Amino acid sequence: MTTGIGGIAGAPDLAAAPTTPETGPSAAARRSRNARYGRWLILLVAAIYFLGPLVAAIAFTLKGDNGGISFAAYGDIFTTSNGQTGLGGALLYSLLIAAVSIVITLALMLPTQLLVHLRLPAWRPLVETLTLLPLVFPPIVLVVGVSDVYAWAAPPTNAAAGTQESFVFHILKFLREDSHPLLLALLYVILAMPFTFRALDSGIRAIDAQTLVEAARNLGAGWSTVLFRVLMPCLRTALVNAAFLCFALVMGEFTISSVLLYTKPFPVWLAQLPTTSGQVQAAVSVFSLLLVEVILLVLGALNVRGPAGRKE
Amino acid sequence: MSSLPVTTPLSESSFATQRGATVEYRGVRRVFGATSALDGLDLKIEPGELLALLGPSGCGKTTALRLLAGFDTPTAGDVLVDDKDVSHTPANKRDMGMVFQSYSLFPTMSAIDNVGFGLRMRGQGTRDRRDRAGELLDLVGLSEHAKKYPHQLSGGQQQRVALARALAVRPRVLLLDEPLSALDAKVREQLRDEIRRIQLELGVTTVFVTHDQEEALSMADRVGVMRAGKLEQCDAPAVLYDRPATPFVAEFVGTMNHIPGRTEEGGRVRVLGQVLPSDAEGAVPPAGVEVDVLVRPEAVVLHPAPDGDAVVMVSTFRGSSVRIRLALRDGSELLADVASHRAGELAAGTHVSLSLLDRPVLLAT
Amino acid sequence: MTNTLETGGTGHSRARRFSLAWLGLTPFFAYVALVFLVPIGFILFEAFRRTTTSGVTRDPVTQQFVKHTETSFTFANVHDSLQGIYRTSLVTSVKLSAITAVIGAVLGMLLAAAVVNSSSAFLRQVVTSAAAVTANFGGIPLAFLFIATLDANSGVATTFLQDHFGLSLQDDLHLQLPELSGLCLVYLYFLVPLMVLVMAPALEGLKPQWAEAAENLGASRWTYWRLVAAPVLLPSFLGAVLLLFCSAFSAYATAYAINASFPLITIRINAVLSGNVLAGQENLGAALALLMIVFVLPLTVIYQLLQRRTSRWLA
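^ inputs. structure came back:
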């Protein structure tokens, strides 16, 4: 029931015909149209720049010997080798390191961050700053430091044969072993810290851990129940995010592993493929980039449809 | 209840000055895809009037305000200011002042720079700007905070600066989009009075959007109650309260009891054993019809009586009054408001006898 | 914050409770100290040491030559790190990083603005995840993609331009992969997404009410950007430029794979570590690493300060 102003018997003025279509010629509409064109132009240029090399590389990998299209490069992916191992070996090697890194990261960071968040908030600035340090000191710098540690612990070069190796050196040598490169895993935990801390931190904050813990303990839960049955399920998205960030970092890390002369991690393996097979190198690159991107997109999509009430 | 809208011509209502602009919405519609945010709004606002647009979320009040401000264009209809169509004037040329619900102020500018922003846009020199901005900060009582930044001010202070900023440019129309909703209750009350005082002093036409009926009723010259894109009634607060034009308005503004009754001869109605005149403008309902009688809680009179028809179930203290929920013999419930000094005698479980004030009652059609 | 530790044993004092919790942080601190701080500490230490041969003597028993070395604290390493090819590598690294940081910041800003304002959630998701991938994982595969595209002889784009437009990538467009121009182009590939990742939240922090209030008060779109939005975004923007600089400065994998034709400090460090240096300069690597730290550390501190400022305003 509308009220016609102008008297008790007023009826709506029917003489006012509609004059403005939805996309009127007003300045505002024009301005937003221009803005939209500008936006699409930028996105187009960006798409060309970012997808271009990918498309070009794919074209490159499909170049046949006689000018036609050949998938030979992609087939060769599985047979090529850098002298030490093939694609499967390299991927597996990195994957294992990644798995170890993820386990160490979660086992180290999750309790620490929960402890800080729930009990020791005053320590947070210090902890956060420490986790940001790896961003400040580039991997190349870190690996110099690691080399120096090894140089210091090693017996002097002019020592007579049979000199006893120090205990520290024993441990260091063990960590560095090619067959079980725990050294890499340990270092990667540090490299990933800035990102994993953030991921876990936003997850912990989002679920209001304090209230959950108090509620659970109020109902009689012990600490392990609180951690494994209450907090971790709620933190699932954050844990997966942190794990994936760690995974992406390990699978792509080249600096430390190559300077320390490893040959089997995936990026090092890729870089050491014989340069005569430029197509194969490109093919592996395309393959790995697409794979990681797809995994990320899938994870992103899963996140959006996360547990009810968690995501907007 | 009448089926025709009841309107009060402004000459009868509280306030009218010659300053300030007139605002008119003529057949304004705004459609977003499949939904109609505004479905034919016709409204005329007189110079110097404070008109509140009141309604639940989604009723279109904010859309109406934004159309006036120029942040949106109507799908159909015109918006006129001082009888000139502004529908195609860009927002930054409409010469209006707006206060937002939150985040009004520019964070990197001090209070005085914020207030002077509009003047800067109009090309005023620094000295003049400072003077005028200082005047306005004085008006809202924040002169000592002139150099402070928004993050150093409380919510109430920020909104006052926002008000000063909107008024600095001597706008034709002042627009307020739920400016008090994000503030604490106490601050809200203070600011309510201040805004009204300033508005009256300056005589600027003001449109005030809110979902809080207390705010609307206490501040406005007229209140436009909206629902689902339509204006249900636009009247002075007292009229809105005593003579709601539609069932929605009756429920939305204040609380209403629904009591079954039966019409009698001469436009009277029998309800709860009493016979009262019905307040029906226009058509008088025929006798012998079952009707829903609308009665305000303050029109219900209670006396403790051991043989009474009703029992007090819950008694809620609300400061100056107590709201009592009664259970009647037939199982239905009624709300009654009594002065709080009577709370003692009307505790839960007390039997009471009921009667209604001898005033005309409204009938729901 | 109340300490909700269970009251197991009423004899426990408050001080005792707090110290127990503190202990829980030791795994973290110990880990960071051992795996990170110790190596960094060694850099600081080794950068100032040098082992010189003080003489060669013959061991009377075994008749072998034995080299005697002396290790002393010296600034010689640091001095050497600023000479010759190392100096050049520092200068070119700084040049490359500065150029790409500024270009990347501007382009990234435009892209971030375009993405943030878009209404498509899918677009935002794609861009965010793509940015995360290239920022972290890029390195080697990225380099090979660009080699496949822009290689002077067999690059897809190179031959395409040559065959269809008669344009030489090298002579006409002055774009060669191992040169500065080519390297810049490749670096932008991970710097622009980093910029987007950093600036998108800042752009999203711009409240629509500010734009509307500005418009309402008579400002044009441009005036709003100039007087309201830019001051708010400036600290974030500057911080992001610094971040981009540090990221470009520290880059190794990409430069390695592309085989830059000019020296870069990160590549130089690797050369030193793999032993291609004169005798007695083993600690040069540490000195170079120290040099990098000296550059990056202050920039990061400034970045943190700028971040703090921004959060005050956008809170």
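Chain A has two domains: 29-80+275-304, 91-155+166-258. The radius of gyration of chain A is 29 Å.
thumbs up if we can close this ticket
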